[in-house]
Every structure is written in C-alpha cells, then in structure tokens.
From TrEMBL:
Organism annotation: Rhodoferax aquaticus
Location(s), subcellular: Cell inner membrane
Protein name in the entry: Cbb3-type cytochrome c oxidase subunit
Functional summary from the UniProt entry: C-type cytochrome. Part of the cbb3-type cytochrome c oxidase complex.
Domain of life per record: Bacteria
Residues the entry annotates as binding heme c 2: M188, C231, C234, H235
Record-linked Gene3D superfamilies: 6.10.280.130, Cytochrome c-like domain (1.10.760.10)
Amino acid sequence: MSDFTSNFWSIYVAAITVVAIVACLLLLWFSGKAKAMTAHDNTTGHVWDGDLREMNNPLPRWWVWLFVITLVFAAVYLAMYPGLGSYPGALTEKWSQKGQYEKEVAKGNAEVAPLYAKFIAMKPEDVSKDPQAMAIGERLFMNNCSQCHGSDARGSKGFPNLTDGDWLHGGAPDKIKETLVKGRVGQMPPMAAAVGTGDDVKNVANYVLSLSGSPHDSVRANLGKSKFGVCAACHGMDGKGNQALGAPNLTDDIWLHGYGENAIIAMVNNGKVNQMPAQGEKLTEAQIHVLTSYVWGLSNNAVSK
C-alpha cells in the first residue's frame, strides 16, 4: 500500500521525464559536434546497391530548430501545467483539469437555471404531472440512475425496482430526496451463528418463504418460526420490515437479492452489503427536486392511472 501513498513514483516519473528531455538535447548537440571519418568526396565509405553512397552532410537547419523548439515547448509546458509527477504546475491556481470541469458544469447549470426555476417552487406531486419536467427528469434518470436501476427503472437483482411502490426506506418524496442527496448503505449481517445449525437456517428460510405465501416446506416452516425471532429485531415479528432501518418487507413476495430457499439461506449465512451512491454533490438542488418528482411519479402516477 505504501507504493500508492509515498512520493517515490511521483519523483521517479518526474526524473525520467526530465532526463529524457535533457538526453534529447545532448544527443542533438553531440551529433552536431561529432566528426565522422570521410573520404575526399565527403562520403563515409558505406555503399548500398552498388552505387548508393552515404554522405556526411549535416542535418537540415529547419529540422534541427524544429527539434529544439519541440523540446523547449515540452519544458515550458511541464513547468506551467501538471505533468511532472505530483508537481501541479505554475498555472494550477489559474487552470486545472478539475477547475475547468467545475467551471463548465457551473456554466451549464447557470444556463438551465431559468428552466428549473418554475419547478423548484412546485410540490413533487405536481412536478411529476408536468410533461416538460418529466422529460427533464427522464434525462436526469438516464444519465445518473439507469446504470443500476435500468432504463425502464425496473431494476434487477440487487438493484430495486422503482416502479412497484415497494420501498426499503419509504417512498414519500422527502424520503426519495433524502436517498438521492445522501445515498444509502444497506447491510444485512451474517446471522447463521445466531440462528443455529444448518437445519435451523433452512427452517428459517422456509418460514420466511411462508410469510409471502411462496412455495415452502410447511414442516420446516413451523420449526423455523421460533428461530425467526433473531430476524425479527430488524424485520419485525410479522416480517413486514422496518423502513427506518431499511429492513425489507418479507411478506410481499418481492425479492431484491434472489428468490427461493437457496437464496435466503445464502443471505442468512453470508449477509449482504448494498450501497446507493449519494448524488447531492453531483446534482444541483433543482435537479434533485425534479429527479425526486420523476422517481416518485414512476410508481404513484402509474397506480393512479
């Protein structure tokens, strides 16, 4: 790990770069000073194809100066801009890649601010019914959310479906906004040791399946009911979950990380950590507001139709 936190590689890269530029200058200088042994006709004595003789003429002046200008440009560039390891460059305060990016983002946000102005004062429920706002929200979703939740927002294994009204942390607009701004980290700890033996885990898995009316072994489910008390701390005795903790409802037959006995056993044995990255520093408040309205509308407006 020290290879990535020490200054060794930064110094190494900077030294190699400087040595390479100096070596090119020295090579040019020595090649101009060196005297080759030539015959009286200014040839070196090397002959190819019978009559093709190597002359000892100097390099063209335009080529030499072009080479020098290139090296001088390289030295000036490396002094002004980042390029020598971790050296930031003399113009860092005036220009940097990050600064240029932030400047362009700020410019773009300023240009579209009037477009968002009329939406920021509206309730999310009202914004979700505005066609123009939803067109913007769809584009925001495609650029920032569809990579995980899919272009249709129906998610996939490990990524929640945003169109079905089933919410781990609550589906109210303020909760959706909170998720977008701060992100979420969901954790199911390994519970095999607390549940008991391998048969106990299997019994609990069948009891969990029984809660949603899914196919299960009723004998094992009855045996697993008492052991479910370990899980009830988060999911509740009735298995309906706890949105304050992000604990899933086990009675609705919606399975985020896989369905069936084997999937539940694996979850109990191994646990699971899931993360929704925060968008608060990436998107403006107005963009978050429109995106919140769009996501809320995916399930609520569909239900109302």
